[in-house]
Amino acid sequence: MDAIGQSGGMPEVLGGLLTFVVLTHKVFPMKVQTVVSQVLMACCTCILLFTIGCEAPSPEGKAGSIQGKIEGLSPDTEIILRSFNRGNLVNVGKAAVDSTGFFELTPDRPLAMGYHQLVVDRSLPLVLITDSTENLYVEVEAQRGRNYLVDASISGSPQSAKVANFYNAIMPLQARMKNTDKKGRSVDAETRNAAKELKKSQTDSLSNLSLAFAKAHTGTLSALSALEGLDPKVHGDLFKETLSALKGSHSQSHYFKLIQEKMVLANAPRTLDMSNPPKRKGKNSKFGMGDLVPDIVMNDPEGKERKLSDLRGKVVLLDFWASWCGPCRRENPTVVRAYEQYKNQGFEVFSVSLDSDAARWKKAIEQDQLSWPNHVSDLAGWRNAAARAYGVSSIPHTMLIDRDGTILATHLRGNALESTLRGVFGK
After folding, report:
1. What CATH number belongs to 297-425?
2. Quick check: bond before 107 cis, omega within 30?
3. Measured over all CA atoms, what is the biggest interatomic distance in the chain, rounded to whole angstroms?
4. What are phi and psi of 390, to 5 degrees?
5. What pLDDT score does 91 carry?
6. pLDDT digit of tens for each residue in the chain (427 aa)?
7. How many angstroms separate the CA atoms of 140 and 155, rounded?
8. Which of 114, 203, 365, 427 is least surrounded by Cβ atoms within 10 Å, i.e. has the fewest?
9. 3-state SS class at 247
10. Structure pTM?
């Protein structure tokens, strides 16, 4: 997933018609009404108000407090404030509502300018861009979609409003792309071919929307949302122009650093022995078909050391993923089916997670029923040692490795993975 997908990338939202107020600096809480279609399962009405305090002129801001009252939530429902850090969402404060729905939350660290999320009951986050340390008033109205905001309208924060408009444009398209992916897994060849052509058209449309938005808002934090979905190798000048414009005022923003690292990784020189360079470089990687892969030595969720080299003699799918990566999670059922079908024929999966939160990593493994034993991570996010060694700059990313440790194919997803494995195992 390119970082858009971290967490995606696309925001999931509070259910129902939503209004919320964010106040920074020395201001009084303002009431906002929210109609939540369900508090996960039951209908409720939500009233949310909060203030985030920060003090000029420090670009890092100052930790303040968030107060609110949410009617319809069960007592002890958790409210979490998160900030982006190297593509990962990091909890920076939490509180539980009391029996009346009231909560008070104090961030445990200064809030830098950039992207933040307020999460109710561990899900459905609200996205806010703090683009200055000045007083900020934001009001949002939105309709709940299945997984994200629908027809969001934001006033009071120009950057947040721009991003909401961008998401309004691309999310319906992404939903259609998800349906196209399902058709692409059809047993009917004609349906699969039609889905393949449609997916290409939809992907081009998504890229065009992202490109147009990034160009229209170059020099603003909101442009970073669109750059997530673009390839820095193809649009390098646009990446450089946007980052250069933001360097002075927003260089400490975690999101700025994420996009900057994305560009650096995409253009980083190979650290391989150039006397014997790879024959065919893989997409989003330093390695391509026919290359011998380097070993990966890392701990699993229980702290046990696992090595990729221990699987020599088997066909291995090396899978770079993360719990916050939407496309990764959507691809997991395909990997699960493949593992169950071929695990008794010498097929293994070696999953490298780019998570930084161990609990979320473990929870995703359990939720997605990833039953193979080889799950590893150093909990360093995008700085994961294996991802850096392999030159991985976006996820999901996979490599199919032969029994002798050489790469058979790269970037296998969906039908491509299934058909390749049929070719390897003969059925």
Report:
1. 3.40.30.10
2. no
3. 69
4. -90, -10
5. 83
6. 443 333 334 333 333 323 333 333 333 333 333 322 332 223 333 333 333 333 222 334 333 456 666 656 678 878 777 776 554 567 888 888 788 777 777 778 766 667 777 676 544 455 667 655 433 334 434 333 444 434 445 555 677 677 777 877 887 887 788 888 888 877 788 888 888 888 888 888 888 888 898 899 887 888 887 887 788 888 888 888 888 888 777 776 766 766 776 676 565 443 333 333 333 344 556 777 777 888 899 999 999 999 998 998 889 999 999 999 888 998 999 999 999 999 888 899 999 999 999 999 999 999 999 999 999 999 998 889 899 888 888 888 999 998 878 888 888 888 888 888 887 776 6
7. 7
8. 427
9. helix
10. 0.45
Token code pair at residue 308: 């990729």
Res 267: pLDDT? 59
Residue in 280, 152, 163, 263 with CA at minimum distance from that of residue 216: 163
For the CA atoms of 392, 394, 395, 397, the dihedral, rounded to the nearest 10 degrees, stands at -50
Q: What is the Cα–Cα distance from 282 to 265, expressed in whole angstroms?
A: 14
Amino acid at 65: S
In terms of DSSP bridges, do strands 136-144 and 88-96 run parallel, antiparallel, or are they unpaired? unpaired
Helices (H) and strands (E) in the chain, counts: 9, 19
Sign of the Cα pseudo-torsion (262, 267, 268, 273, in order): positive
First to last CA, the chain: 30
Cβ atoms of residues 74 and 45 within 8 Å: no
Q: Which long-range contacts (CB under 8 A, 24 or more apart) does 304-309 make?
A: 306/350, 306/373, 306/374, 306/376, 308/350, 309/405
Look-up of token digits 């193979």: 372
Please tell me the distance from the alpha carbon of residue 217 to that of residue 236, in angstroms, as a whole number: 16
Buried b (16+ CB within 10 A) or exposed e, 39-64: beeeebebbbbbbbbbeeeebebbbb
How far apart, in Å, are the Cα atoms of 191 and each of 23, 181, 184, 389, 427? 51, 11, 7, 39, 21
Q: What is the C-alpha separation between 321 and 354, in angstroms, rounded?
A: 6
Helix axes 236-250, 254-267, angle to 10 degrees: 150
Q: What does the domain layout of the chain look like in residue ranges?
A: 3-154, 171-267, 297-425
Alpha-carbon span 260 to 257, nearest angstrom:
5
Closest by CA to 37, choosing from 137, 150, 134, is 150
Q: What length does the chain have?
A: 427
Residue 159 belongs to what H/E stretch? helix 158-183
